């Protein structure tokens, strides 16, 4: 294989087809940037999930005086000290329970006031409306059902709530959005593929004289197809390079500078540079392999022996 | 060198076979004219030798190989032992004369040293010494065909296929091309040439194979273009 000859043929092909090459580069860049973005978004949601699920707990709310009217289980009035002791004993006996915190109505009120500082809800609540509760940290947060079945209807228990439920809706939304992104990127990759197939066909057509002569003098099909495949791979590589730049730039402007999301949303720990750099090799690989495969498929029918 | 055994070839969507039960043998070192009117099957005959087409029935052997049993990836290697020349020259207009000839060697991966050595030799042989750096557009038809012959011959093929190489040339120029092909034949290369040019066939007095509607109707050594009907 004569490298210099092949390279000059590739250069000629790309220049001859400049507008199409440009279109391929742009569409590959955009679809790969979206691919990388979606992968990172997915990672981000996963890491947030891990972070938050680790923090959330199961809360067992106990009856207070006010619940007697509204909750059948609390008909006999507020929870007694005996009941509290029994609940705590049962909780501690469960192997899946890691830790139990007790929160008095007073503490609950304080937390509530802090959380809803800027909301009119804060002033509408009084301490005696708050419930004493046990915050239970589970070794495996998904095993909520066991606790729920144990304490739902237990004397003195008003309700058992899994805080995961609250976050679940948020994560479902985020996951849904990533899924939409995947669908969009599947379309974009398809469009990029079709564009590459078409570009390669045009390229092969405009050079049918050369390829015809190559066949006649006995060039192997590998040698005939090579420049076209390399052309597509090269355009793909440029596009993938742009996509990498977009991903790095995107992380920089969204998190560190520009939007400064990290400052605005300190609760969320955003993915680090290592995660962004981690997806780049995959983006580059797809950027080279996908156009090369598309070109190969395009040529299979076009350049027969 | 070439052997056809009862070869029949019908193209899809055609009723009449392009070639019908053709059997013949061409020996090493022969010079053979292939004559016949348009549509007689000359091109099909040549395309079968080049394995651009395959037979329906019958066998084609070229250079001792059964082309039906030659796998696709071996076809390029077979073609490297064949040279091909066409009526329309098929040169690359954006490459110089020398580059056109070198192209044939580059694409089969010959080392640069070999190319630098053999290209001037073959251009000298076809009488184009000194015109290496011209573009095909600057050359006359006869000169362009010489470039094409140089390209076909540069790899020293055993067999040269020429499909009406003088079809676009005036009689005087054609004589020059025929002298060149004759010289190539004298180096031991088998030449098979399809032609409509009666004068050339009559003058050269070589073996003549005539096809008519796909059938072999005449195979004559030292023949002329046509019978006096």
UniProtKB/TrEMBL annotation, chain A:
Start and end residues of each FtsX extracellular domain: 56-160
Compartments where found: Cell membrane
Membrane topology: Multi-pass membrane protein
Transcription as UniProt keyword: no
Family matches, as Pfam families: FtsX, FtsX_ECD
Chain segments annotated as transmembrane: 21-41, 180-200, 232-255, 275-299
Keywords: Cell cycle, Cell division, Cell membrane, Membrane, Transmembrane, Transmembrane helix
InterPro entries according to UniProt: ABC3_permease_C, FtsX, FtsX_actino, FtsX_ECD
Domain ABC3 transporter permease C-terminal: 183-301
Similarity annotation: Belongs to the ABC-4 integral membrane protein family. FtsX subfamily.
Self-association state and partner proteins as the record states: Forms a membrane-associated complex with FtsE.
Functional description taken from the UniProt entry: Part of the ABC transporter FtsEX involved in cellular division.
Protein name as catalogued: Cell division protein FtsX
Species this protein is from: Actinacidiphila acidipaludis
Name of the gene this protein is made from: ftsX
From TrEMBL, chain B:
Top-level taxon in the UniProt lineage: Bacteria
Keywords: ATP-binding, Cell cycle, Cell division, Cell membrane, Membrane, Nucleotide-binding
Any GO MF annotation of the entry: ATP binding
One cellular-component annotation, GO: plasma membrane
Domain annotation ABC transporter: ranges: 2-228
Record PROSITE patterns: ABC_TRANSPORTER_1, ABC_TRANSPORTER_2
Membrane topology, record value: Peripheral membrane protein
Pfam families noted in UniProt: ABC_tran
NCBIfam families, alphabetized: FtsE (TIGR02673)
Assembly: Homodimer. Forms a membrane-associated complex with FtsX.
Family assignment from sequence similarity: Belongs to the ABC transporter superfamily.
Protein name: Cell division ATP-binding protein FtsE
Gene that encodes it: ftsE
């Amino acid at each position: 294989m004569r490298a210099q000859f092949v390279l000059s043929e590739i250069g000629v092909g790309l220049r001859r087809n400049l507008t199409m090459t440009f279109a391929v580069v742009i569409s590959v860049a955009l679809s790969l940037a979206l691919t990388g973005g979606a992968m990172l978004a997915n990672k981000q949601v996963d890491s947030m999930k891990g972070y938050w699920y680790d923090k959330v707990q199961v809360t067992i709310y106990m009856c207070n005086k006010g619940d007697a009217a509204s909750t059948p289980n609390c008909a006999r009035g507020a929870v007694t000290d005996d009941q509290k002791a029994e609940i705590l004993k049962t909780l501690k006996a469960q192997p899946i329970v890691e830790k139990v915190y007790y929160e008095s109505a007073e503490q609950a009120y304080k937390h509530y006031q802090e959380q809803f500082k800027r909301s009119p809800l804060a002033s509408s609540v009084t301490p005696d409306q708050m419930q004493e509760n046990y915050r239970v940290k589970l070794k495996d947060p998904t095993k909520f059902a066991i606790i729920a079945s144990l304490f739902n209807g237990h004397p003195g228990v008003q309700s058992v709530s899994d805080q995961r439920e609250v976050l679940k809706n948020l994560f479902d939304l985020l996951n849904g959005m990533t899924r939409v992104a995947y669908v969009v990127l599947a379309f974009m990759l398809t469009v990029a593929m079709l564009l590459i197939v078409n570009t390669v066909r045009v390229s092969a057509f405009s050079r049918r004289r050369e390829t015809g002569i190559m066949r006649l003098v006995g060039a192997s099909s590998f040698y005939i197809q090579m420049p076209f495949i390399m052309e597509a791979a090269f355009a793909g590589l440029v596009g993938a390079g742009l996509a990498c730049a977009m991903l790095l730039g995107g992380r920089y402007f969204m998190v560190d500078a520009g939007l400064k999301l990290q400052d605005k949303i300190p609760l969320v720990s955003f993915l680090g540079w290592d995660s962004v750099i981690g997806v780049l090799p995959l983006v580059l690989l797809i950027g080279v392999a996908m156009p090369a495969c598309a070109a190969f498929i395009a040529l299979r029918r076009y350049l027969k022996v | 060198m070439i052997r056809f055994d009862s070869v029949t070839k019908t193209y899809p969507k055609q009723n009449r076979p392009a070639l019908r039960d053709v059997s013949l043998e061409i020996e090493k070192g022969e010079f053979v004219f292939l004559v016949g009117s348009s549509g007689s099957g000359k091109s099909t005959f040549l395309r079968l030798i080049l394995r651009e087409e395959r037979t329906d029935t019958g066998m084609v052997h070229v250079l001792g190989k059964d082309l039906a049993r030659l796998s696709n990836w071996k076809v390029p290697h077979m073609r490297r032992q064949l040279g091909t020349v066409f009526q329309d020259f098929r040169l690359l207009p954006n490459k110089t004369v020398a580059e056109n000839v070198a192209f044939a060697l580059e694409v089969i991966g010959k080392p640069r040293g070999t190319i630098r050595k053999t290209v001037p030799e073959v251009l000298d042989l076809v009488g184009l010494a000194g015109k290496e750096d011209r573009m095909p557009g600057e050359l006359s038809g006869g000169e362009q065909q010489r470039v094409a012959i140089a390209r076909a011959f540069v790899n020293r093929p055993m067999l040269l296929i020429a499909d009406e190489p003088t079809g676009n040339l005036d009689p005087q120029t054609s004589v020059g091309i025929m002298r060149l092909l004759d010289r190539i034949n004298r180096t031991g290369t088998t030449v098979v040439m399809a032609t409509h040019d009666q004068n050339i066939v009559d003058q050269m007095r070589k073996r003549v194979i005539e096809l008519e509607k796909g059938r072999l109707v005449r195979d004559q050594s030292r023949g002329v273009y046509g019978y006096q009907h």
